[in-house]
Amino acid sequence: MHTPRRRTDLVVFLAVLVTGVVLVLSGIEPEAVSTVAIGLSTLYAAWQRQDASPGRREPEPPAPPQSERGRACE
Questions:
Q1: pTM of the entire predicted model
Q2: Are the C-beta atoms of residues 24 and 30 closer than 8 Å to each other?
Q3: Torsion of CA 47, 48, 54, 59, to 10 degrees
Q4: Residue 40's pLDDT is what?
Q5: Residue 61, CA distances (Å) to 49, 53, 73 in order
Q6: Residues 21-35: pLDDT tens digits?
Q7: Cβ-contact 35, 48 below 8 angstroms
Q8: Phi, psi of 13 (to 5 degrees)
Q9: Cα–Cα distance for residue pair 43/29, rounded to 1 Å
């Protein structure tokens, strides 16, 4: 957990969690709090994608073994 990105993820997670707890304890309905949390997480995910450098790509999943490739065509 020494990379800045992981620290940022942790800080954002804790901020959303604490905000949710405070809102529920102050009388806001849990359904409304979950809507706000989903909205904030969506915005954060979009911000993280925009922040990524153009040369940096997500790793592609490994290809299936050769034996399974033949079965998919049958």
A1: 0.52
A2: yes
A3: -150
A4: 83
A5: 19, 20, 20
A6: 999 999 999 999 889
A7: no
A8: -60, -50
A9: 22
